[in-house]
Structure formats: structure tokens, C-alpha cells
Amino acid sequence: MKLRITAISDKGCVRENNEDMVLIGKKLLRDDRLQGSTEPDEKNPIFIVAVADGMGGANKGEVASEMVLEEFRERIYGVSSGLDDSALKDVISSLCQVIHQKILQESMSDPAKWGMGTTLIGLLCYEGRLIVINAGDSRLYRFRNGILKQISHDHSLRELSGNSNIPSNVIVNSFGGGNTFYVEIGPAGNRVLNGDIFLLCSDGVSDMLSDEEIETVLEREGFEDALVEAAKKKGGEDNISYVLVEISEMEA
After folding, report:
1. CA distance 106 to 147
2. Torsions phi, psi of 208, nearest 5?
3. pLDDT per residue as tens digits for the range 83-129
4. Shortest CA distance to 119 belongs to which of 10, 11, 5, 20?
């Protein structure tokens, strides 16, 4: 499997600072752009990309997003080999609970960081399998044959209640967000195909652009940079961060 990756993190048009952060392999990204490719193999069977959207007053959301991704970078590559789906889910879930507690304790021990937290949407390549890691309302989409499909579920009050009148940004789950933290972990769809494009993004993309608008952008040539420009054109009211992962050379 070959992964062609484009990552962009931009503060947008309104916010004074960028509380989002992106993880590509072992590289952290904020207010920057990165493009490249990787081919996980037997020697390097683990690779992760992730987007974290920080929350909290006095610019502490950016502290939370960086802490979570730093912890993932340090811990995920120590996961044992040869795990089946159930065992892998248990290991990642335990890892996430440890990271959540660390964010929560940091928030409680420093009044300046009180209430900080972060969402996380991650796509983990583990021994040829693609696994979704989700807490909050940052999203994972799959773009296949011109059709965009949301793979992740929003951990929002709107989604939980089914009431579309509730603002979409009222979230009920995040790293550092309280004692009722949980994380969703599972496969990135039933089957991954050559040509699939996975989009991980903060709500600075998904709140600015409808699914149909994202589809239109992804159908264009040069869509990698066009997505941030489209979100800005619609107002760019939040930080804009995303990772595009294009899949090729899948084994039959």
C-alpha cells in the first residue's frame, strides 16, 4: 500500500491564532503545508496521520492539540505487532485513556489551562489495515468515484440528540473534556480500494463547506490546495486543517 499525503494547517481568515495541529508520521504541523508519500512495510508497519482541533480560553486550545499529538507520536509506534482487530482496539483505547487523563490533569493543575481540550481524528495504518481513531467532531471522509462519504461520527449534541436545530459545534466528547471520555476505533470502511482518497479535517473545513462543495473541490485538478482556498472563500471563520491521503498499490 502506498499513501500519498497532503497536509495543510492554516489559521483561516478570522482567528488570531491556530489551535489546530496535524500529525504526519512523526512530524507535527501548524501554520504550514507538507506533501509526500510513504509505503508502510514489514520494517515500518505503523504509520499515523491525525488532525487535532484544540479548544479552551487564553490560547490554551493549541496547547491541548499539541500535547495530544505529541503523546500519540511517542506512544503509537510502541504498539506491539501481530495484534488482531479486537486486541488492537483495546490497546489504542487504553492509550487514548492515558492521554486523556494527562490532558485533564494538566488542565486541572494550571488555572491558565482550565477547560482546555481537543478533538482528534486519526487514520492509523497498522500492518496493512487502515484504522479510524475518533474523539470529537473532527471528521474522516472517503472520496471514491466522485462520491464523498463521511466515515466518522460526530460526537456532538446535534448528532446525539438528532436535533438539527442544535449548533453543530456543541460537542459532548473530547480529550480533556471531562470524566465521560470515550474514543471510537474501527476500520476505515469495509474495503479500501486503489484510488480512494481519505480526508481528515477540523470543523474549519466541514462547517464552511457542505459535502457537495467538498466533492466539487476534490474533483478538480490541484484539489490539494483548493480545499483551503474554498473554505477561506466561504468565510474561513475557524482554523482550517486537513490531511488528504490518496491510496494506491493496494494488493488484490
Report:
1. 42
2. -85, -30
3. 999 999 999 999 999 999 999 999 989 988 888 999 999 999 999 99
4. 20
